[in-house]
Design brief:
The protein has helices at residues 15-21, 31-34, 37-47, 98-110, 125-134, 159-174, 204-216, 226-233, 240-249, 280-285; strands spanning 3-10, 51-56, 71-74, 78-79, 94-95, 116-118, 143-149, 181-187, 253-265, 268-278. By secondary structure, the protein is of the alpha/beta class. It has an 8-stranded mixed sheet, with helices on both faces. Strands 4-5 form a two-stranded antiparallel ribbon. The structure holds 3,4-dihydroxybenzoic acid and fe (iii) ion. The site of 3,4-dihydroxybenzoic acid has 13 residues, from loops.
């Protein structure tokens, strides 16, 4: 059976792609952020995931405002990226696990999540930046299942809905007959707002609260409506919905192994976390 070995959540600011291309790992501006990935690399080397289920939001590369699903799941054997105009290198193609995608899609529809199924889907910086941060040499030792959540055009799905979406996906993965080691990834956030009167808005206190609560009490965060979330985390800080879905997918005993929080990277409060997910059987065996 497939096992969820844990999760990584990270900011996906496009400027990171340029900094990686320019090898700015020790540059004073970038170092406090990149240092946060030393532990991620250590954890990945031990966790050895075969597949990454990536919860992210598209920013107009694959979906635009004219046709925008609330939830979309990729079901392809490879995912291409394209130039989004940020001046960052276009990443290489990422392999997909279409069979696992279809298993997840089936479980979602059974649980009344009527998702858009994408046998072709371009992935944007919200997938490629986290992938490049986790594997800077772009070897991509995992296949991905991309799960796209609308954080762009209102009405957005609620925190509660995203948590439930993740829970269905977590149960689906654990019922998958193949012995796969699956990690979950949540991308974006934390607080940021890119435009409008509050451009540059960051809320350290709320970010800390979100990172504290999401570990053992994710349901406590569902008390915030989407409009409260926009107010507290910024218009783009709602990318935290991706983190909630990722958290929902970890159905075991979750603990925080690592946290790095640094203000700012570009306009964003940059956060990187690693979560452990222990299943019941593993705890007993330990
Ligand atoms: C920035 C942050 C984002 O989440 C994004 O998608 C694009 C840009 C930024 O802070 O520059
Ligand atoms: Fe974003």
């Amino acid at each position: 059976m497939a096992t969820i070995v844990g999760g990584v959540a990270t900011t996906h600011v496009p400027a990171i792609g340029k900094a990686i291309a320019d090898k700015k790992f020790n540059d004073p501006y970038w170092k406090p952020f990149f240092k946060g990935f030393d532990y991620v690399h250590y954890w990945l080397a031990r966790a050895k995931p075969d597949v990454a289920v990536v919860f992210y939001n598209d920013h107009g590369l694959n979906f635009f405002l004219d046709k925008l699903p609330t939830f979309a799941v990729g079901a392809a054997n490879e995912y291409r990226s394209e130039d989004e105009g940020w001046g960052i290198p276009v990443s290489r193609t990422v392999p997909g696990d279409a069979a696992l995608s279809w298993h997840v899609i089936n479980a979602l529809v059974v649980d009344e999540f009527d998702v858009t199924m994408c046998q072709e889907m371009l992935i944007d910086h919200a997938v490629t930046i986290p992938m490049t941060l986790m594997w800077p040499d772009q070897t991509w030792p995992v296949k991905i299942v991309p799960v796209e959540i609308n954080t762009v055009q209102h009405p957005l799905p609620s925190l509660s809905r995203c948590l439930k979406l993740g829970r269905t996906i977590g149960r689906a993965i654990e019922s998958y007959p193949q012995d796969l080691r699956v990690m979950v990834v949540g991308t974006g956030g934390l607080s940021h707002q890119l435009d409008g009167a509050r451009a540059g808005f960051i809320n350290k206190e709320f970010d800390q609260l979100c990172m504290d609560k999401i570990v053992a009490e994710p349901d406590a965060l569902t008390r915030y409506s989407i409009h409260e979330l926009v107010e507290l985390s910024g218009a783009q800080g709602v990318e935290f919905l991706n983190w909630m879905a990722m958290r929902g997918a970890m159905t075991g005993q979750v603990s925080e192994l690592h946290r790095n929080y640094h203000i700012p990277i570009s306009n964003t409060a940059a956060a990187t976390v690693v979560y452990d997910n222990q299943r019941e059987g593993q705890r007993k065996a330990a």
